[in-house]
Design brief:
This protein is of the alpha+beta class. It has a domain of about 80 residues. About 25% of the residues lie in helices and about 15% in strands. It contains 6 helices and 6 strands; from the N terminus they run αββββαααααββ. Strand 2 and strand 3 form a beta hairpin. The protein is elongated and about 75 Å long. The relative contact order is 0.11.
Length: about 180
């Protein structure tokens, strides 16, 4: 599945040992079960959604058939996981080789009439024309966001939804990730 020399780690613990020292810890944010809000900033201390009034936490049935809400340390109804982008960018600019690669598209790219890099595209040039201040600095990061569809619980035998979102840095030279 992977190119030669690339391997997957066996456990999440091993992933965390690599990511955490680089400041790339995975963040978890509680979410409304109906996707109205994320429990952060102004909503961080709320126990239920202000729009749909659903509880933030899972409900637990007691022995006497009454239902109580598990507060504080109980499991949330829904959680969003993400890797913050700022620590990743700091790591890129802290390494001189990576920082040089971020301006590769301006300094070392072969410029002919062939489409070899996203910097050759009409969209890249149009963006530079529309935002000239941004386009003047070759180290400004250009990102692409992509998702891999969505699975509904109706068609799945699992009780959760995973919706991968990929963030791609267009500044880097093609093939850099294969080295």
């Amino acid at each position: 599945m992977l190119l030669e020399g690339n391997t997957l780690l066996n456990r999440n613990y091993e992933d965390k040992k690599i990511l955490c020292p680089m400041g790339m810890e995975c963040k978890k944010i509680h979410a409304c079960p109906n996707d109205y809000i994320l429990y952060r900033k102004n909503f961080e201390l709320l126990k239920s959604c202000p729009r749909c009034a659903l509880s933030r936490y899972k409900l637990k049935q007691k022995d006497d058939n009454t239902i109580e809400e598990i507060e504080k340390h109980g499991p949330p109804m829904k959680v969003m996981w993400y890797l913050p982008i700022i620590p990743m960018m700091k790591c890129l600019f802290a390494n001189p080789n990576d920082a040089k690669n971020l301006s590769w598209h301006e300094d070392e790219r072969k410029c002919d009439d062939m489409y070899r890099h996203p910097a050759d595209s009409i969209q890249w040039k149009k963006f530079d024309d529309e935002f000239p201040e941004f386009g003047k600095e070759p180290r400004n990061i250009r990102l692409g966001l992509s998702t891999n569809g969505m699975n509904s619980l109706v068609n799945m035998s699992t009780n959760h939804i995973s919706w991968p979102v990929l963030l791609v840095i267009y500044n880097l030279p093609h093939g850099l990730c294969m080295k």
